[in-house]
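Entry 14. Structure prediction run on the chain below.
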Amino acid sequence: MKKIILLLAFVSAHLGMQAQELIRIWQNGESTKVALSSAGNMVYSNNGATLTIAGVTYQTAAIDSITLVHQVAVTYSEGTANVIVPQLVANDITVQKDGANVTITNNNVSNEIEFVLKGSASNGSFTYNGSYKTTLRLNGLSLTSQKGAALDILCGKRVAMVLEDGTTNTLADYAKGSQKASLYCKGHLEVEGSGTLNVTGNLTHAIKTKEYLELKKGTGTINIVSAAGDAIHAGQYYKQNGGTVNITSTTQADGIQVEQLTLDDDKTPDPDKENNGQIFIKGGTLNVEITHEDCEALKSDGDISITGGTFNIAASGNGSRGIQTDSNMVINEDDNSTNIIITATGGVCTNEADADDPHRCMGIKVDGDLTINAGTVNVKATGKKSRSIRVGGKYNVSDNANVTVSPAAKVG
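Output returned:
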């Protein structure tokens, strides 16, 4: 209670300073966001039992905390960008602009600052430098870079990316640059919000994260329009709790690839990195079409765990695979049903580099053990010499699972 009173006193003293100042009222892990300029007089009533903010009355005992949020607004308008920085954090934020190419350096290491990006630029980009967790809110953003990445997030901490409800956001990078992806994040990228994100990777990957990539349960739609490399390339692990990911035949490499992070001094995996090289699918929808030779729709160096979600995967490139792991794979059902449909229509790989290993197109290839405990799994291979499922270790199917495989899986 004392902390809330002190914060409200501070907030009241700064009312009207900037529209980019917000307060969040937290209850049971969820927050209600109120613009500071519209908060009005915040009044305790009933001997402190209730608190009224912006005309809404809260039970004081039910409030976990009230936090002050600073928002930096970046609005693009073709050849330029307007950046508004709240007064309270002006000393922490450095802004550099070259037309509509914006670079922001955040030196604040104690309070999270949010960045709201909106507007359109056919020659624009956003680069972020910082050493503390942050939130990027895409609120109807359209950026096509003529220099490098459209979004280049050079922060090694947790970065929340919110696709604001009802918005469509579009990113495309420069085909002749040196960037790692059209959307690159150095740290941990967590995506949420029910909006839509369209990404084009003209140079290489469409989306790349150095460490893990997570799609929250309420995530909207991510469309990979095209990619010269992987559609999505993640380090450490990939987790999908919800949302729809659409990856079309215009992707020239893998659909979703996860690699193990390595130790700084050599190329061996780092055993201290949590879930290193793994994939977790707990919900949402994956629609992936792979037409290029020797590519995978879903590929991991480590284990794959599927406990929910809808999968529509088509592997038609020679030597392509629907799902491939160098380790083990488990298919089950938890809070959501699991429905997997995979077709393998490609033939044998014809790349000269693979002449010593002319591998086949496959629906699922697991080097370790494959365990199917529950869910509906339908894998069909029709390509010349293609296979439905190939398992290097043990293959276990529970009576609770509905599995249809044609032709039969090859084990061992």
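The longest helix spans residues 2-13.
Filed with the rest of this week's runs.
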